[in-house]
Write a structure and sequence with these properties.
Layout (H helix, E strand, L loop, with lengths): L2 H8 L1 H16 L18 H6 L11 E3 L2 H13 L4 H12 L6 E3 H16 L14 E6 L6 H14 L4 E5 L5 H14 L3 E2 L7 H15 L3 E5 L7 H18 L6 E7 L5 H12 L4 E5 L9 H9 L3 E5 L7 E3 L2 H9 L2
Parallel strand pairs: 3-6, 3-7, 4-5, 4-6, 7-8, 8-9
Antiparallel strand pairs: 1-2, 9-10
The chain binds guanosine-5'-triphosphate.
Length: 337
Amino acid sequence: MSFFTKLRDRLTRSSAKIGEGLDGIVEAAPQAAEPAPAPVPAPAPGLVGRLFGTTPAKPEEPRRALDDEMLEELEDMLVQADLGVDTALRVTANIAEGRMGRRLSSTELKELLAAEIARIMTPVARPLPLYPKKPQVVLVVGVNGAGKTTTIGKLASQFRAAGKSVMIAAGDTFRAAAVEQLQIWGQRAGVPVMVAAQGSDPASLAFDAMSRAESEGADLLMIDTAGRLQNRQDLMEELAKIVRVIRKKDPTAPHNTLLVLDATTGQNALNQVETFRQLADVSGLVMTKLDGTARGGVLVALADRFGLPIHAIGVGEQIDDLDAFDADDFARALVGL
Ligand SMILES: Nc1nc2c(ncn2[C@@H]2O[C@H](COP(=O)(O)OP(=O)(O)OP(=O)(O)O)[C@@H](O)[C@H]2O)c(=O)[nH]1
């Protein structure tokens, strides 16, 4: 199954919210009396519809003239779908430009919205950059439960498949369960996981991991970190120390600092970006759990607000449920096209 198909099939909670929202907005208008179209067989729902072609031929779609009231409804719906007020306003204004009074069908509105979303997201859709530097050090940060371990495992597996040698350091040394999870993912991905005694200094583990990655000529070293935001000062010091220590080995490291965000937290993801940017030099984002939420619109808000690269998105718990972020695919899947 292509990742786009998977994305479309799993983003349904978000896309239902937006797609059905748009249908509702257009259909809310009294429809002009038009000759009733000949009845058509109801399109097969879901799977069958998807198996046999694209969009089923539609009878004449309802239309609604674009006016202030409709724009307001559109704006509200986008805010509800977690695009955030600023982004919703901008998107709506762009859709309105030069189109006031035009009678739009829901499909046309979806196309317009998808184009606006893709326009916002195209500049940030950038895969994790790979450098010739060995080892390339990728620091992975994010709150507990955001999906850091899972993301590291999935990325490690993909890099391995692409012929890279990868090592993982289990830098959340306080939580035995977190270390265990990472070891399981390391096994699945066929990648060594360096661990340290429970409660030991993560920076010292990071230093040892750097030494080993250098001596073994690894291409990539991914370092997991703790996500205890309850004590921000401690976490900031811990992350700063890891960075200081690995820079003793390589002054240009870490080469990437990935912030992993959980889509189900909706608007809270924006606060997490603000916070982690103060704690670490975040260079890019990965968003997980887009499959389990109606709040996928938050990714548009993130792109619009911060402009940070979005390297990958996760749509499930399996090893191949993570892929590079594609702006057009995401925009179309999100609006239900
Ligand atoms: N549905 C879904 N679940 C995911 C996805 N990514 C991660 N998960 C699940 O989210 C839970 C937390 O993921 P972890 O990778 O353990 O998160 P973490 O940030 O490492 O959390 P700690 O180990 O607590 O620091 C696990 O049950 C994962 O299986 C995703 O894209 N979709």
